[in-house]
Specification:
Layout: E1 6-11, H1 16-31, E2 35-40, H2 58-66, H3 84-95, H4 101-110, E3 114-118, H5 119-125, E4 136-140, H6 142-150, E5 154-157
Helix pairs in contact: 1-4
Length: 158
């Protein structure tokens, strides 16, 4: 039996359109039969956070306050219009019957995409494991990402 193909998606950005792309690519790969991992680092954490305030120290709390996580708090790369952009994009997606970010994330979860969180980012931004959605499988270091991407048939960095 042939070895299963693998795909690795690295989500570095926490912007609405880039999170949409990462979820869509991960879903596409998983749907095509690839064993798919989504490695989330730095601002991409917004896509896997519950949305509660994070950080313990002064700087960590400030970052947590200014960069609160959760899929409903994502700005767009362009056309953000002071926060109205994501509202417009959600409406346009709904009107066109395109799945919204929470649905896309759930589809990725249902398809068995492995959500992996970057340990270094959690340390720097003072994010605790309990601040993340339950479906995050593991908190790993960059060595795990390197190993996964080295053995992957597909690797995408968003």
């Amino acid at each position: 039996m042939a070895e299963k193909k693998t795909a690795t998606v690295v989500l570095f950005s926490g912007e609405f359109d880039k999170v949409f792309a990462a979820f869509t690519i991960a879903i596409g790969a998983a749907s095509a039969g690839y064993e798919t991992s989504l490695f989330v680092t730095f601002w991409g954490y917004k896509a896997i956070q519950k949305g509660n305030l994070t950080g313990q120290g002064f700087l960590g709390r400030m970052i947590g306050l200014m960069n609160r996580g959760g899929l409903n708090r994502l700005a767009t790369t362009r056309f953000n219009f002071g926060g109205i952009g994501p509202i417009l994009f959600r409406k346009m997606m709904k009107d066109k019957k395109v799945a919204l970010l929470p649905e896309l994330r759930q589809t990725a979860i249902d398809l068995g995409v492995h959500f992996l969180a970057c340990k270094t980012t959690m340390d720097v931004l003072e994010i605790k494991r309990e601040d993340l959605i339950d479906e995050v499988e593991d908190v790993v270091g960059v060595a795990s990402l390197i190993k996964a991407s080295q053995n992957s048939d597909l690797t995408h960095f968003i």
